[in-house]
Fold this sequence. Notes:
The chain is α+β, with helices and mostly antiparallel strands. It has six helices and 13 strands. It has a five-stranded antiparallel sheet with strand order 7-11-1-12-13. A hairpin with a 6-residue loop joins strand 3 (81-85) and strand 4. Helix 1 (58-72) crosses helix 4 (203-215) and helix 4 packs antiparallel against helix 6.
Amino acid sequence: MSAHTAQTRLQLIGKLILEANVECLTGLHIGAGKGSLEIGGADNPVVKDAFGRPYIPGSSLRGKLRSLLEQSSGLLKPADLVYLSRRKGQEVRIHQSNEPGDDICLLFGRNPGRMERVEGEAFDSSTATPARLTVSDAPLDMASITQQMRENLDDELTEVKNENAIDRITSQANPRTLERVPAGARFQLRIVLDILCEEDKPLVARLLEGLRLLEDDALGGGGSRGNGRIRLTGARLVWRGRAYYASGAQETELASSADLAALQPLVMGEDFLSKLSE
């Protein structure tokens, strides 16, 4: 829990901007849904932009970070979870509380209203909290798809992975195909963390914790079947205080060309938070 209270006053101090490359160590599948299925195409296509280029939706990355941080914080008990959606087969359960210092709710925001708990009485959310964390869609770095890679791909930018589901009674194989962005592809990530009060500054460490957890987990679908291992490289960390927006003051570069292992000790250093000033 952070030091926030119900009386904490919010006023923009500045924005911390993290830019990095998301490098695919294995094939990445973030599905586009059955609505985009084409004749002769893969059963499970990846999401693409209007130019046919795969990208990582900011919502997918943001949702995965939230899930990992909830898990690492021990917030997955049914009594701590509320339903965002109860449609059969598409249930969405997240953590939410009224605690002013709840790091998860501060990072990802919360809306007031009545929500049904997974277990126990309905939850009345009396607090509205603006989200501090913004994750943009990450476009594909086209230069990362080399000519050698293209010669071995099933499509111009993607590959098709063939999988089998085995019936436990008959041993019959039920094949399925999965479209993936190939290993070696890179995406351009941009994350913005708003610092709205002094008590927000420790949230930087929580963000780095979530990103490090992600590197040892998986992004997208089929993570337990080998998909979605990623690594963040070439990270650049920039601070833009309120004066940057109000009077054109210079931004401060805090780190460049770093990986997460180098960034985490930096943001947890004693003098780091003092650099996040107006």
